[in-house]
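Batch queue: ligand-bound targets. Current item pairs a single chain with nicotinamide-adenine-dinucleotide. No template structures supplied; prediction is de novo from sequence plus SMILES. Inputs echoed for audit trail.
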Amino acid sequence: MNFKDQVAVVTGGANGIGRAIALKLADQGAAVMIADTNKDAAIITAAEIEEISGNSAIHATDVTNFDLCTELAALTADSFGPVDILVNNAGIAGSSGWHSRSFSTEEDWKLTYQVNVIGISNVTSAFRSQMQNSRSGRIVNIASIAGREGRPGLPHYSASKAAVISLTQSTALEFAPLNIRVNAICPGLLWTSMWEEVGSRYTENNSLYKGMSARQVFDAMVEEKIPLKKEQTPEDVADAVCFLVSDESRNITGQTLNVDGGFFMR
Ligand SMILES: NC(=O)c1ccc[n+]([C@@H]2O[C@H](COP(=O)([O-])OP(=O)(O)OC[C@H]3O[C@@H](n4cnc5c(N)ncnc54)[C@H](O)[C@@H]3O)[C@@H](O)[C@H]2O)c1
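Prediction returned. Tokens below.
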């Protein structure tokens, strides 16, 4: 795929899945803006992109802050021109200390919804006029298989990701007359810093996993849950993003694609 002369923004692009998406888009020729609260990590990822394509910038965006999102949109336009590709990837699994608790607090509910759902709405709104003018925008929201079905453990996280799937459909319908396509991806099990914390939560709170390391819990879950018997990688998700923002998917909008080795088949 070729994204030469296109401008991409990746929220949460400094680490994990977002980093892989940013690197892949740069590898295919896009200029990439990394929007992340973690400025130090964003600088490192931007330096990697510079080596690939020489075309990167960063903004210390907190997606929960609409003013910062507006600033991000203005900086992107000034640095590269209007955005073509927006990847809403920034996400959290709870408020401070969530992985040491066996229950969700009110703060977990509030902050997780603010980042995972309202954050997507904030960034999308901030870039709306740029995409509207070019009439060719493409948006991918990163949801999760946790949003496909209710289950115990992290109800606030699952509910927020179900909301991302619904938000994707609403935005796709709203933006279709503007020729802007909006899709979502549900990643499966990926060994990132987020899953390291998920794993430690299992070892601390679930007697089934006592004495195991976070990585051992992860491997056990891959073995038990994933029909293809292999973990997903950030690069797997990045490849799916590239398809959904390319011309090859020109007639696809409002869809949610599982990248999960067959975990969910709906
Ligand atoms: N790791 C998995 O197994 C998995 C599975 C399904 C879905 N996901 C989703 O994929 C996305 C990326 O997850 P990851 O595993 O790479 O996590 P990660 O923790 O490794 O990276 C998340 C990035 O988002 C940034 N971020 C957090 N809050 C932010 C905010 N308010 N504003 C801007 N940036 C912010 C962090 O600084 C970090 O760079 C998330 O939406 C997550 O819910 C992950």
